[in-house]
């Protein structure tokens, strides 16, 4: 008992937001990085850059005046909000967060407080965020904006650009007052209810200033959840580092964010996409620790989601149609990771996510203290025979069919209170 309880991280949230339940149930989100960097596609003046496509302005130290010219070529005529939202729905995604403004400073929406926007500076002249907010709402996919609140390479007083502007002369307060706060207010008033505002890289504000920023924004949409990168411990849920899963189950609401290939923003020469099998195992692994996976895609400058992102997301969605019960609305599994895979749980049910089927057909579930009612494959509900040996369950899988990447089995049991606490509310 003691050992089991020690596997829980004791991190706690000071004051819990009252609209966290949908987030805890969601388990699978879609992150979208889309901006002028998507048009550059990882290349500048014939040189290819690797890493993160959305960092190319920084990597190539592109002067603001030159970077502004990219907007004139950015015309995403293939953009189709309904197709993006439909892909999210087909993939089994429950929430979408898209870059309204990344570090480059370009507003991907119709902002009145800047001229550096998709509506004013690009030939596209339309607001794609409006269309996406509508398309996701129609499909009951929750919608939110990523907003880089401190880093803004386009602005004299924004964080980060030290190749054009002198860092010692920056007035961050002025930048917040003139751009970041007014833009955040636009986003929170012009697109209907936002489920999430995803802040990134805090800076330039004291704890009291961050608190008053958060309060003034929450006042506009109290139900909206703010990510932990708003800074100063003031977020409503926790984000881990980019592409990080915690080693043990974590209490409270949290999220792991992952790139699909090796970049957030589109890079033409990055083909290192995770297969659907890898996505499914990642999703199950994050869920087994009690968190959400928000997986990123990087559409190109024309507005197309890369072929492999579509393909592997759709395959993931097909797996979720059959196995979603073992992912959505689950809590962390109370049996720790095993050589064969991981576990998730609901009251009276333990889901066994078997990544590696045992060679001898005997699956060992150790340390299970309750009486077992039945064991069955989630797909098809076929019952399986099993033996008890003290607190172990040994399940006979010899007649089971293997699913791609993750075959799920369900242990239904009574005496919930004999199991270690797994409720992470
Ligand atoms: O939006 C994505 C990143 O652009 C942003 N957060 C995620 C969600 C982010 N901002 N800062 N960082 C991540 C950390 C900075 C990483 C860097 Fe690099 C390492 C900057 C320069 C070296 C990665 C690799 C970017 C360029 C090369």
Automatic annotation (TrEMBL):
Q: Which organism is it from?
A: Danxiaibacter flavus
On the tree of life, the source organism's domain of life is: Bacteria
The similarity comment for this entry is: Belongs to the glycosyl hydrolase 29 family.
EC category = hydrolase
Record-annotated Glycoside hydrolase family 29 N-terminal domain positions: 1-325
Give the fragment's position in the full-length protein.
19 to 443 of 595
The name of this protein is alpha-L-fucosidase
Known role: Alpha-L-fucosidase is responsible for hydrolyzing the alpha-1,6-linked fucose joined to the reducing-end N-acetylglucosamine of the carbohydrate moieties of glycoproteins.
Q: Which UniProt keywords apply?
A: Glycosidase, Hydrolase, Signal
E.C. code: 3.2.1.51
């Amino acid at each position: 008992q003691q050992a089991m309880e020690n596997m829980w991280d004791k991190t706690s949230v000071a004051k819990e937001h009252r609209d966290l339940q949908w987030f805890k149930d969601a388990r699978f989100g879609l992150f979208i990085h889309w901006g002028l960097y998507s048009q550059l596609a990882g290349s500048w003046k014939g040189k290819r850059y690797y890493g993160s496509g959305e960092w190319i302005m920084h990597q190539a130290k592109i002067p603001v005046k030159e970077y502004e010219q990219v907007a004139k070529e950015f015309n995403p005529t293939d953009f189709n909000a309904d197709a993006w939202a439909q892909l999210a729905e087909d993939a089994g995604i429950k929430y979408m967060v898209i870059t309204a403004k990344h570090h480059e400073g370009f507003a991907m929406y119709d902002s009145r407080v800047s001229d550096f926007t998709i509506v004013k500076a690009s030939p596209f002249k339309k607001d794609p965020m409006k269309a996406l907010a509508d398309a996701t709402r129609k499909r009951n996919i929750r919608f939110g904006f990523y907003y880089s609140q401190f880093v803004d390479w386009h602005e004299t007083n924004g964080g980060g650009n030290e190749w054009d502007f002198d860092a010692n002369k920056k007035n961050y307060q002025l930048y917040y007052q003139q751009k970041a706060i007014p833009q955040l207010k636009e986003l929170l008033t012009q697109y209907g209810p936002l489920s999430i505002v995803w802040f990134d890289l805090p800076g330039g504000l004291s704890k009291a200033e961050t608190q008053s920023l958060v309060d003034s924004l929450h006042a506009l949409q109290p139900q909206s959840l703010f990510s932990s990168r708003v800074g100063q411990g003031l977020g409503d849920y926790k984000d881990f580092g980019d592409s990080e899963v915690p080693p043990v189950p974590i209490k409270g609401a949290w999220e792991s964010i992952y790139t699909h290939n090796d970049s957030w923003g589109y890079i033409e020469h990055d083909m290192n996409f995770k297969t659907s099998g890898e996505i499914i195992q990642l999703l199950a692994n994050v869920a087994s620790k009690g968190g959400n996976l928000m997986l990123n895609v990087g559409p190109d400058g024309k507005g197309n989601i890369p072929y492999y992102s579509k393909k592997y997301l759709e395959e993931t969605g097909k797996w979720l149609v059959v196995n979603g019960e073992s992912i959505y609305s689950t809590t962390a599994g109370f049996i720790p990771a095993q050589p064969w895979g991981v576990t998730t749980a609901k009251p009276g049910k333990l889901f066994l996510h078997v990544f590696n089927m045992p060679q001898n057909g005997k699956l060992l579930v150790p340390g299970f203290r309750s009486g077992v009612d039945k064991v069955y494959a989630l797909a098809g509900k076929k019952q399986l025979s099993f033996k008890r040996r003290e607190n172990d369950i040994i399940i006979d899988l010899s007649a089971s069919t293997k699913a791609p990447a993750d075959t799920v089995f369900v242990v239904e049991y009574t005496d919930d209170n004999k199991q270690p606490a797994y409720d992470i509310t």
